[in-house]
Write a structure and sequence with these properties.
- With 250 residues, the protein is α/β, with parallel strands linked by helices.
- The protein contains seven helices and nine strands; from the N terminus they run βββαββαααβαβαββα.
- The strands form two sheets. A six-stranded mixed beta sheet has the order 5-6-7-3-8-9, with helices on both faces. A three-stranded antiparallel beta sheet has the order 2-1-4, covered by helices on one side.
- Strand 1 and strand 2 form a beta hairpin.
- The relative contact order is 0.18.
């Protein structure tokens, strides 16, 4: 239904030079509560697509409908301010918007609790592990009651164990809050685990060449990684990527 749509891209093209298209003919729809992963070779425009949806980069042509008022962006690096506590980092978007101190502190603390970091509210970034820093960045993206999260390889700097745990926590939180996600990743495993659909992009120019449904239950944990259904979806994605060539993920 129209009311369920949170992102709509219609024939979106982005050109940096005026002659070479970074993205070409992108058509994409994401609905409320839907998680979509995007995979493809480096340089195919995955991160550019997120920035266009976020309103950080205008399209050269085409149309985009997305509510920037209810949108959060989580980058590969947490980009926390070293001189602010976890609580103050999360509260920053509310502070910028002029929300009074008692309300922004309460909302920031509640959001930290949502991501499992309530007890770390008064710690500074240097006192946090890499995974904790990334969860603070996630809380900062959520504190304004975001309905759509754009995730640009947010797990890339984490070790395998923390990466797996973060995937689980992010998926659980998205389902609890009925969030919509668009996740850019080089990991096929993450893409399948964290989505209802996987979009495959090719380069020169960046185009969506496949939309693979992920027919797995919403109740997901690490055990799902060893199921035949999970393996079959990963294999299908690898086959499409191999046919396009140039993929450097895993």
């Amino acid at each position: 239904m129209e009311s369920q749509r949170v992102v709509q891209c219609r024939d979106v093209t982005v050109s940096y030079t005026g002659t070479t298209n970074v993205l070409e003919g992108i058509n994409l729809q994401v609905n409320t509560g839907e998680s979509v992963a995007v995979v493809g070779p480096s340089g195919c425009g995955k991160s550019t697509l997120l920035r266009v949806i976020a309103g950080l980069l205008p399209p050269t042509s085409g149309a985009i409908q997305a509510s920037q008022r209810h949108l959060g962006f989580v980058f590969q690096e947490p980009t926390l301010f070293a001189w602010r506590t976890a609580l103050a980092n999360v509260a920053l978007p509310l502070e910028i918007k002029g929300v009074n101190e008692p309300e922004r502190s309460q909302r920031a603390l509640q959001t930290l609790q949502d991501v499992g970091l309530g007890e770390a509210a008064n710690l500074y970034p240097k006192e946090l592990s890499g995974g904790m820093k990334q969860r603070v960045a996630l809380a900062r993206a959520l504190v304004e009651h975001s309905q759509l999260l754009l995730l640009d390889e947010p797990f890339a700097a984490l070790d395998a164990l923390r990466r797996e745990r973060f995937c689980y926590e992010m998926w659980r939180l998205a389902r609890k809050k009925n969030l919509s996600l668009i996740l850019v990743t080089h990991s096929i495993t993450e893409a399948v685990w964290m989505s209802h659909r996987v979009l495959i992009m090719t380069e020169n120019p960046g185009q969506i060449v496949a939309d693979i449904p992920v027919s797995l239950p919403d109740q997901r944990d690490s055990a799902i990684l060893s199921t035949n259904e999970f393996t079959a979806i990963c294999t299908k994605i690898r086959t499409v990527l191999a046919a396009g060539g140039g993929y450097d993920g895993y």
